[in-house]
Write a structure and sequence with these properties.
The complex is a heterodimer of chains A (626) and B (106).
Chain A (H helix, E strand, L loop, with lengths): L6 H48 L8 E11 L2 E9 L1 H24 L6 H20 L3 H19 L6 H32 L4 H6 L4 H18 L8 H4 L5 H10 L4 H8 L1 H6 L2 H22 L5 H21 L3 H28 L17 H15 L5 H16 L1 H26 L5 H8 L12 H16 L13 H6 L12 H24 L9 H4 L4 H10 L1 H35 L7 H22 L4
Antiparallel strand pairs in A: 1-2
Helix pairs in contact in A: 1-2, 1-3, 2-3, 2-9, 2-14, 2-19, 3-4, 4-5, 4-9, 5-7, 7-10, 9-14, 10-14, 12-13, 12-17, 13-14, 13-16, 13-17, 14-15, 14-16, 14-19, 15-17, 15-19, 16-17, 16-21, 17-21, 23-24
Chain B lengths: L1 H5 L3 H21 L3 H26 L2 H31 L14
Helix pairs in contact in B: 2-3, 3-4
Classes of the chains: A mainly alpha (626), B mainly alpha (106).
Chain lengths: 626, 106
């Protein structure tokens, strides 16, 4: 079964090709079901590979499957090879599993869209690219998938490109990611320069010098910052919400944005060799992003923007874990986050669908009676992300906070404040959407007569994934319970491939503090938004994301633009001027010299005669021959 | 004494060749009729032939005489092509001079 690992990415690729050829003929909704079936089949193969891997001993679990030699140039030999090991299969399991659910959901969500089959074309291509990213046995195959998911992300954010904002958001994501890609490429160059290979097995097991390892780790982290939306490159993720909601759930919450975390875990042995400050940089940026994004989420009114900033914040947690050396905790949180954030996004999508494409939470309220299943599942997701035991998010967040405390109590404190804010803004969202007064009618009166505006529950293919993900969000923590070594299944499972560290801090007091803080956050939000005892604090600066976005726009639109205009002027006048000047000079000289060609035969004859005489003179007089 | 003076030496032939060659060169540079031009070129060729033969006889070297055959063969071929071109030009433009044919000037 391990040999069949190539089938995992091949099935979505086959789906992509079939929809490319016959998508229009299949149409709505058959193309969607077909795409779902392909990713579902891929999930089944992954489960098979996983089961096979489980039956082997820990040492035999890594399996390299070389498909063909890709680039054999001199000393650079790169194979298109897939590496099936506990880490990549874990990633594959949740990528294909959640991918299948979201594909199914999208069949309902995208129903009636004029580009229905094209949507699933991109989704299948995304699944293929993501699986290549995860399964690649060397950095270049990973980079291939990395760029593939970036392209799909661009295509899907700008899916409704007739909307200006969507087209702009797509471009923004694409360009911001280029900055990160530069880091990834630099890391590859460094790795190749240091060990002469791009294979993870070689890079991770060679004796790198501390400085080289630091360079590789930090450049990889720049790449990860771009893909996983960390400061200062997080800008594109909130805007990416212009895409259809299933895309936000699949790409911008559950899978693609975790690619950066995956990469850091993949090269965890390199990170261990790297200088101490590399870990500190990663941990500080992670903690700063987590806190920063959480403060912004407090003041957002768009149902998806809240979740987007929440995603940035949770990814910050994962990098905090990576920087603290807790790679398994990062992966654990990545998995549970994939469950509950996909659930929350799909729930939000269900609400938007039911509200006839209304996204402003100020125009919602009291939806729990009209959309019972969405409301219940959303509330489960809320409890999971807020860190209420025994839901999944509690276990993974607690694990990260534990290791952050080992690293530094200050990082732990920042993480704790973030947890408080997380519980606060998620409670705010739940109250604004599902409780309180129904406000959708006043909203639509402003728009003028809109006919039947009663929100409705979504169809079965949208609700089923919600229920499955809700169950996973409840029990997801069970894969890694901190009670004893045997219940830490994820850690044991990942031990052969990822560096595992033991924590020395007492777990129980920290866990109790975390629970209390989470409950305080929930309580505060209830006092403010449900009971209206205290006026809500939503300063404009938070709604504007601390003005960072605008500062970047202003800089790039003002001084930055002028600098680039100056550069363009220099290019047009200095560089082009030198090139064109040389050309013009040659032309003008040639224009004068060509006058010598008079076309008069007798002039030529005279020139030949004079030349002969001069040559003879030279021979006779100067050289003295004869 | 007179007979001795009257006996032509190699120098006479060389001088004659030089004079003929110079007439040819001046003719090419001064005249404008293509046919005359052509004849001047022939004159130069044959002046060279004359010096070849004279010097071959003077030094008793057969190489000079055999070179003349090559020159004559090449000259014959050249005449065929050159006369053909001249005739073609004059057919198109009667009374054309070489100065009229300057279409390829820079």
């Amino acid at each position: 079964m391990l040999d069949l690992v190539w089938l995992i990415p091949a099935l979505p690729l086959a789906g992509f090709i079939c929809i490319l050829l016959f998508g229009r003929k299949l149409g709505d909704p058959k193309a969607g079901y077909f795409a779902t079936a392909m990713v579902g089949a891929s999930f089944l193969v992954t489960v098979g590979v996983f089961a096979d891997m489980m039956s082997k001993t820990a040492e035999e679990r890594s399996h390299l499957r070389t498909l063909f030699q890709w680039i054999p140039v001199g000393s650079l030999k790169v194979d298109l090879a897939l590496l099936a090991d506990p880490l990549s299969i874990t990633m594959c399991l949740f990528v294909t599993g959640i991918g299948t659910l979201i594909h199914l959901y999208a069949v309902g969500y995208m129903h009636g869209d004029s580009k229905f089959s094209k949507f699933f074309l991109y989704l299948n291509l995304f699944a293929f690219s993501m699986l290549m990213l995860v399964l690649g046995s060397n950095m270049l195959v990973t980079f291939l998938g990395w760029e593939g998911v970036g392209t799909c992300s661009y295509l899907l954010i700008a899916f409704w490109h007739q909307k200006d904002s969507a087209a702009t958001a797509g471009k923004k994501a694409f360009i911001t990611n280029r900055v990160g890609d530069w880091g990834f490429m630099m890391a590859m160059f460094f790795a190749f320069w240091a060990v002469g290979s791009l294979d993870y097995s070689v890079i991770n097991h060679s004796l790198l010098s501390t400085s080289t390892a630091t360079a590789i780790a930090l450049f990889c982290f720049i790449g990860a910052c771009g893909k996983s939306a960390q400061l200062p490159l997080y800008l594109w993720l909130p805007d990416a919400m212009e895409g259809p909601t299933p895309v936000s759930a699949l790409i911008h919450a559950a899978t693609m944005v975790t690619a950066g975390v995956y990469l850091m875990c993949r090269i965890s042995p390199v990170l261990e060799i790297a200088s101490n400050y590399a870990g500190w940089i990663i941990a500080i940026i992670g903690a700063a992003t987590a806190f920063y994004a959480a403060t912004i989420a407090v003041a957002q009114n768009d149902i998806k923007k809240v979740l987007a900033y929440s995603t940035v914040s949770q990814l910050g947690y994962m990098f905090l874990a990576v920087g603290s050396g807790a790679y398994t905790a990062a992966l654990f949180h990545m998995i549970t986050h994939a469950f509950f954030k996909a659930l929350l996004f799909l729930g939000a999508g269900s609400v938007i669908h039911g509200m006839h494409h209304e996204q402003d939470m100020r125009r919602m309220g009291a939806l729990r009676k009209l959309m019972p299943i969405t409301a219940i599942t959303f509330i489960i997701g809320w409890l999971a992300i807020a860190g209420v035991p025994p839901f999944a998010g509690f276990w993974s967040k607690d694990e990260i906070l534990l290791f952050a405390y080992d690293k530094s109590p200050i990082l732990w404190f920042v993480g704790l404040v973030t947890a408080l804010l997380t519980a606060y803004y998620m409670t705010r969202q739940v109250i604004m959407v599902f409780y309180g007064k129904a406000r959708w009618n006043d909203a639509h009166e402003e728009h003028g007569a809109h006919g039947d505006t009663e929100p409705h529950e979504s169809p079965w293919m949208m609700v089923t994934p919600l229920m499955v993900l809700a169950v996973l969000s409840i029990v997801g923590g069970a894969i890694n319970l901190p009670f004893s070594h045997t219940t830490e299944r994820l850690v044991t499972w990942l031990e052969p491939v990822v560096v595992v560290r033991e924590s020395t801090t007492a777990k129980l007091p920290l866990a109790i503090i975390a629970i209390v803080v989470g409950l305080v956050g929930i309580g505060l939000a209830i006092i403010v938004y449900a009971k209206h005892r205290v006026k809500a604090i939503e300063p404009q600066i938070l709604a504007d994301a601390w003005g960072y976005d605008r500062a970047v726009s202003n800089f790039m639109g003002g001084p930055g633009r002028q600098a680039f205009d100056g550069l363009a002027w220099a290019d047009g006048h200095v560089v082009d001027g030198a090139v064109n000047g040389t050309g013009a000079l040659v032309r003008s000289i040639a224009g004068k010299v060509r006058k010598l060609q008079t076309g008069n035969v007798r002039t030529y004859a005279a020139a030949i005669g004079a030349g002969v005489v001069l040559l003879l003179m030279w021979f006779v007089v100067v050289r003295g021959i004869l | 004494m007179i007979a001795a003076i009257a006996t032509p030496t190699t120098t006479w032939y060389l001088l004659l060749g030089a004079v003929l060659f110079s007439i040819g060169v001046i003719g090419v540079m001064v005249r404008r009729n293509p046919l005359i031009l052509f004849m001047c070129v022939e004159l130069m060729l044959n002046a060279v032939n004359l010096t070849f033969v004279a010097l071959a006889r003077r030094f008793g070297d057969i190489g000079g005489q055999s070179t003349v055959f090559f020159v004559m063969v090449v000259a014959a071929a050249e005449v065929v092509v050159g006369l053909g071109i001249v005739v073609a030009i004059l057919r198109r433009k009667p009374h054309a001079t070489t100065d009229d044919m300057a279409e390829l000037k820079g």
